[in-house]
Specification:
alpha+beta; Structural Genomics Hypothetical 15.5 Kd Protein In mrcA-pckA Intergenic Region, Chain A; Pseudouridine synthase; 3 domains; 9-stranded mixed sheet; 4-stranded antiparallel sheet; 7 helices; 15 strands; 19% helix; globular
């Protein structure tokens, strides 16, 4: 089965926060690729500053226009790789995996292998739904590279179709634990705001209210579990439940109401003093998919799976909020 993938282009205007960084480091951060991949992009002429090719050790200045173009992933079958997985549940139809931070779900530009799909192909012996194509076999829904937690994978086409329909009809419950920057005025609420591709930065998503710009309905329900103040900033431990499942949904929605996630440099929650002093514990946004409820595609049984946050995130929660707070998967 052939896979058709498009080039991904990104554009941003250099801000004061970016000044002083080498171009390869900045492109790596903005484009979501490794440092070595960023160097290859720059050397191939796929990165420009104010329309001119730049050197990898260039240090952009405020106001310059930085553009980059990522090549499409090769449309070839993902290869099985012996990569450790935490399997929460498995039968003949589905696999529920607790994905680790840093693991990409499926091959894409900058991440041709080492993904969850590569690991699943090895683990399942090739027994995955083909509906997702050669790049995304079995993948019904995704979570971000730096988000940990639960997702369900289909082992056959019938299971894939049933799960996809259930997600479309909002019958799959996905609950996350998040650490947000700032103190919420209310104890709970809902963000009902459409999400689409950012108009100038194609690697980001944004709340889009312009009817002429493509966007999709997105609804996130949130509830504050605990509040804290540390090193000059306030933080909130938040339970988030998705009604829809758009790319970067929780990150975009909470940022849109003034509460980006701790560690999320893309949407404004990075570089707090607390993060600077706890770099060893924080790798990207502090977000964990801890509870997943679905209807089994064959038996019709309603099933709930839970997974606690990874050790580093549990330690951040302990430092900020103490030992007595509940995680979202426990509430």
């Amino acid at each position: 089965m052939a896979a058709t993938l498009e080039r991904v282009r990104g554009e941003t205007t250099v801000t004061a926060e970016m000044v002083g960084k080498r171009l390869d480091a900045l492109v790596s951060e903005l484009a979501g690729v490794t440092r070595s991949a960023a160097v290859r992009l720059i050397e191939s002429g796929a990165v420009t500053l104010d329309g001119k090719p730049a050197q990898k050790n260039a240090r952009p200045t405020v106001g310059e226009c930085l553009l980059w173009e990522l090549p499409p992933a090769e449309p070839t079958e993902a290869i099985p790789q012996d990569i450790s997985l935490e399997i929460v549940y498995e039968d003949a139809d589905i696999v529920v995996v607790n994905k680790s931070v840093g693991m990409v779900v499926h091959p894409a530009a900058g991440n041709p292998d080492g993904t969850l799909v590569n690991a699943l192909l090895y683990h399942c012996g090739g027994s995955l739904s083909g509906i997702g194509g050669v790049i995304r076999p079995g993948i019904v829904h995704r979570i971000d590279k730096d988000t940990s937690g639960l997702l369900v994978v289909a082992k056959n086409d019938a299971a894939h179709l049933a799960l996809a329909e259930e997600i479309k009809e909002h019958r799959v419950s996905r609950v996350y634990t998040a650490i947000a920057v700032g103190n919420f005025r209310e104890d709970e609420g809902t963000v009902d705001a459409p999400i689409g591709r950012h108009p100038t930065d194609r690697k980001r998503m944004a709340v889009i209210r312009n009817e002429r710009v493509r966007s999709r309905e997105a609804v996130t329900h949130w509830r504050v579990l605990a509040r804290a103040e540390a090193e000059g900033s306030r933080f909130s431990l938040v339970r988030c439940e998705l009604e829809t499942g758009r790319t970067h949904q929780i990150r975009v929605h909470l940022s849109s109401i003034g509460h980006p996630l701790l560690g999320d440099v893309v949407y404004g929650g990075g570089r707090t003093n607390f993060e600077m002093h706890h770099r060893a514990l924080i790798s990207g946004q502090c977000l964990h998919a801890g509870k997943l409820t679905l209807t089994h595609p064959r038996t019709g049984e309603r099933m709930t799976f839970t997974a606690p946050p990874p050790q580093n995130l549990r330690e951040v929660i302990r430092i900020l909020f103490g030992n007595t707070v509940a995680f979202a998967d426990e509430t």
